[in-house]
Amino acid sequence: MNSWAGNRVLFVGAHADDVELGCGGWIHQLCRRNSTHVRVLTFSLHRPHYDVEVLRQEVKRSMTVLGVTAHDVHDFQGCSPDNEFSVQRHELYAILEAARDEWRPTLVVTHPAADTNQDHRQVHEEVIRCFKKHASIINYEFPNNMVRGERPDLYVELEGVDVEKKIEALLCYQSQRNRITHNYLAPQYIQALSKVHGQAIMAEAAEAFYVMRLAFHKEEWF
Description:
The chain is α/β, with parallel strands linked by helices. Helices cover 43% and strands 21% of the residues. The protein contains eight helices and seven strands; from the N terminus they run βαβαβααβαββαααβ. It has a seven-stranded mixed beta sheet with strand order 3-2-1-4-5-7-6, with helices on both faces. Strand 2, helix 2 and strand 3 form a beta-alpha-beta unit. Helix 1 packs across helix 6. The relative contact order is 0.18. The mean pLDDT is 90.
C-alpha cells in the first residue's frame, strides 16, 4: 500500500462520519505522509436529524484529528422521506465531476454497493458514473449496513497510531454517540474490527475494502 501514498486519493461519504468509520485509519496514515494528496468530500450533515452547525464543528474537529487539510462539505438532506439524494442525483454528480476535473484523483474511495442505506447507495452509483473511466475505485466496509456476504478483496495494514486516531476522530461526534443506535461508534468496536482484519493479512491492524476497478498506468503506481 505504500505505493499509493504518492497518488491523489479522494474519499467520498454521503454523511458526516461515514469516511471516518469506513477508512479513518487509512486516511490518517496517508495524511501522515502527505496530506496534500488526500481530499475528503461529504454530502450531508444529517439535516434535519441533527443540529447542522454543531455537526459542522464536529466534522471540522474530526478532520483535524486525521490530518485532513482539504475537506469539502455540503448540506444535502440526509435519509429524508423524499429521498433527496435520489431526486438530486444530478447535483451529486456535478459536485463529483467538479472534483474530478479540478483535482484529478487517481483513486476514489466510497460506499459499498451492498450498503442498505439509500443515501450511501446513491453516492456509490454517482461515483461509479463519474469516475469509471478516470480513476481506480474501491469501496470501504460498512458492516452495520450490509446484509450480503461478500468478503473484502483488499486490506490496508494500519499502525496502532492510525487506529487510535480513527477512534479519536469518531469520538468528535458527540451528537451522534448520544444515540443508542449508534453503538458502532464505540472505541471497542473499532479496535476489535481492526484486529479482525489485521488477522487476515498477519498484521496488527487493518481496514478492509472491496475492489470495483483498479487502473495501472505506466509508472504511476510503482
